[in-house]
What does this fold into?
Amino acid sequence: MATTAKKINQRVRRWKFSYPTSRDRDEHSAVETAARFIREHAESFSGGNLPDDPGQLAILAIKAYKVFLLQDGKPTGDESVSSVTATANAIVEACRKFDASGET
It folds into this structure.
C-alpha cells in the first residue's frame, strides 16, 4: 500500500493547474476551503461517517465546493452559512443535491 501512495504522491507533484478565468481560481479556492473545513470540523457532521481516505475526502469537497464559493465577497446562493454546524449541514445537503443530480 505504501508503494501505491508513494507513486500517487510522485504523480501529484507533477500536476500543473491553470486558471483561464477568475471564476476558475475562485472554484479551485472553494474546493480547497471545503476540503479544509471537512478535515478540521469532522466532529460537526452528524454520525461522523466521514471517510479517512484523502481521495474520498476530495470527492466530498468537490461535491460541496459551492458552499464556499464567493461572489462579490459573499457566499453564493442558499448554501451561504455562518456557523460551523450550519456549514456542516450545508455540505451534507450540497452532497445530497449533487448525488441526486446525476452529475459526474
